[in-house]
Amino acid sequence: MKTVLTAIAAAIGIMTANAAFAADEFVPETLSVEKEIKPGPNAFILDQNWRGASRVNVFSTDDLTNKGLMSLGLTGNFLVSKDAKTAWTISVFPKRIVHGPLEAVLQEHDVKTLTIRREIAISEKMAQSLAYSSLLKLSADEKYALVQNATPASSVSVVDLAAGKEIGEVPTPGCWGVYALPEGLGFSTLCGDGTLATFRVNANGSYAAPVKSEKFFDADTDAVFMHAERAGKELLFISFTGNLFRIDNSGAQPKVKEKYNFAAAIPGGWRPGGYQISAYNAANNVLFVGMHPEGHEGSHKEPASEVWALDLKTKTVQYRSAVEKLSSIFVSADKAPVLIGLSETADVTRYEIDPTARYAAKPTHKLEKIGEYTQLGYATGEAK
Asked: Which segment of the chain is annotated as a signal peptide (predicted)?
């Protein structure tokens, strides 16, 4: 009898609970997607992946608030248009991941909505490489894209963005990297014999024979980094030992305008190191360079423990800011700029640059481990 009464009590309890639940109307949670990212300056950081989808993370330059991301394929690379409204990405989509056919594409992304506007098929020769700024460029008028290829033979694909198709391939034997001309359609490329070669390209994809600069570096004794910054008509290349080369590639033949070593007179064996090793701020005519001490042959990828602010007018190091193992840096275009530093462990640090304190860098915000591998970024717009 006791067992029966217990069962009846349990049943009544369940019925009472169900009645209580039924009395409360269930309201499902409503999810939404923002149509546009929040306004303000943006920091774009590539998280390159060799095992799955790469992505471009978009953060606020003001405080590193996460705004969203743009998805792309394996071994992705990217750049941002001059007006900061469009991002262009390249990547591959392998059918079987480890072997077999693949599709290489150039994708146009709308920055405001972080959506893909269109996709253009490009040559499967596209270099599947670590992400460097010199592997994807736009022409000076941004009507053409220039894509580095490797088979492993080196060449550059020319993509007509208005027509939405690849119109030509320029062989660049013995040379690597794409540095768009400051005017017209064409590019320069860095060659193993110590020169810079310029190719002029026609609107139909045909091209003229290359014209080389004089030899300005020795790949065996003091090679130059592939990353270069543009200052007006000049490209700024840095060598492994700290030589700065200013090369005008606006004319028919690239001209070496200046060379000097900004590190040799400073004790400690300081050398540049990393991937995106320098960042140019035109508003102050200052080049920021990531540096490490006790440099030696083979240390050119060592992360920076200091960022030096180099005044290009006076050719002097204005300030040496202590940083924590940065492998890449990039800077906004403002008079009081913001510098963003990336580590090999995918940490991101924001620094405020004070022009009144000789361009000292003050850390203000930090994000840890934002992805797999981050070595390429751009900062756009006005920063607070």
From this structure: 1-22
Count of helix runs (H) and strand runs (E) in the chain? 1, 29
User: What pLDDT, in 10s, does the model give residues 197-211?
Assistant: 999 999 999 999 999
Q: Tell me how far apart the alpha carbons of residues 57 and 94 are, in angstroms, rounded to a whole number.
A: 23
pLDDT-derived band of residue 24, with 50, 70 and 90 as boundaries?
confident
Q: Can you read off the two tokens belonging to residue 376?
A: 């390429």
Contacts of 64 (CB under 8 A, 6+ apart): 43, 348, 350, 365, 366, 367
Rounded to whole angstroms, how far apart are CA atoms 115 and 32?
16
Distances in Å between the Cα of 142 and the Cα atoms of 36, 117, 168, 290, 295 are 24, 16, 17, 29, 39
The alpha carbon dihedral of 177, 280, 46, 238 has a sign of positive
Q: Tokens for 263?
A: 């590190």
Whether 217 contacts 224, CB under 8 Å = yes
SS3 assignment, position 15: helix
- Consecutive H or E run containing 258: strand 255-261
For 222, counting Cβ atoms within 10 Å of its Cβ (0-12 exposed, 13-18 middle, 19+ buried), the class is middle
**Residues 82-123: tens digit of each pLDDT:** 999 999 999 999 988 778 899 999 999 999 999 999 999 999
Q: How many CB atoms lie within 10 A of CB 118?
A: 12
Radius of gyration for the alpha carbons in the chain, expressed in angstroms and rounded: 26
**Paired tokens of 304:** 């920076």
